[in-house]
Amino acid sequence: MAANNSLAGDFLPRKVKLIITQILVMIFLCINLLLIMTFFKKECFHTSARYILFALTLLSDSFLLFMSDILVIWAIFHLTIQVWLCVIICAVLLLYVTVTPVTLTVMTLECYVAICMPLRHGELCSTRSTMHCILIIHGLSSVPCIVILSAFFVSASLSFYKKYQICSVEIFIFHTWQDHLRSALYQFQFLIMCIIIVFCYVKIMKVAKAASGENKKSTKKGLRTVLLHGFQLLLCLIQLWCPFIEAAVFKISFSLFEDVRYFNYIMFYLAPRCLSPLIYGLRDEVFFHALKHYASFGLHKRDII
To answer: Nearest 10 degrees: CA dihedral of 185, 191, 192, 198?
Structure first.
């Protein structure tokens, strides 16, 4: 009887965590879906580098939220899968964890070109250039994934792929050097991105001081956008430190480890992914009016039916 009570006591927090996670993920996915539909319905967005890159972050974040939510459910209920299947899932997740911050950096560069090099904006940020840029974004984002999985393939035996494990990137780390390699790679990548964002902010700030009237208003808005991108990038950077914090807590208490890992997921996985709709979906007047139009049109149509 006491054992049953203990199990019930353990299960209730997990159940609450699961409910909170599902509510947050569903809200973010619904908002992202509405924004994605707005992007595809209005043709003027298809020729703007800014909105194409915004749509890329929405698609990337939505996919990441959906896949990571599945892993969270499996972890909460201690469901296991074969390692070879986990490798495929984690390869895609490792790619899209990096796609969003790299895209944010590219969006910052686009903002810099629009404000500091307006005469060359049409040439540098054409639709064709943006499509090439998306390929480059995915190429750069795949580097950590390739390095991490290559180190795993070298270290793992063939029998390990058939084992059943709770799917997590941590199961690919056999040696301390692999962990250090992963950390160094991500830290270097994010350092480069931070330098780019700071550079763009300083350059835009100089233009803002010299500008006047409508130009001053536009550059100030650009500065705020770059700052928000920087804040998003900071949250993504903290996300990279989470495994080290979780590893230290794991040695103290497993229950505390589960709580810390859950908190990290909410704060540093979900939170950065809900800022993109705020930055471009609500702050951008053109996109906001289009969103408002299609949302009200949808509600009106439903009322008629």
So the answer is: 170
Residue 278 pLDDT level (bands cut at 50, 70, 90): low
Q: What are phi and psi of 164, to 5 degrees?
A: -100, 125
Q: How much is the pTM?
A: 0.82
Helix (H) or strand (E) holding 294: helix 285-304
Model pLDDT for residues 214-236, shown as the tens digit of each residue:
666 767 777 777 777 777 777 77
User: What type of residue sits at position 142?
Assistant: S
Concatenate the DSSP letters of all residues of 170-236 into one string.
Answer: GGG--SHHHHHHHHHHHHHHHHHHHHHHHHHHHHHHHHHHH--THHHHHHHHHHHHHHHHHHHHHHH
> Which tokens belong to 59?
């698609």
Q: Three-class SS of residue 81? A: strand
Average the pLDDT over each of 39-53, 111-125, 263-277, 288-302 and give the range with the smallest value: 288-302
Encoded tokens for 151: 């180190």
Between CA 55 and CA 77 the distance in angstroms is 33
State the chain's mean pLDDT as an integer: 79
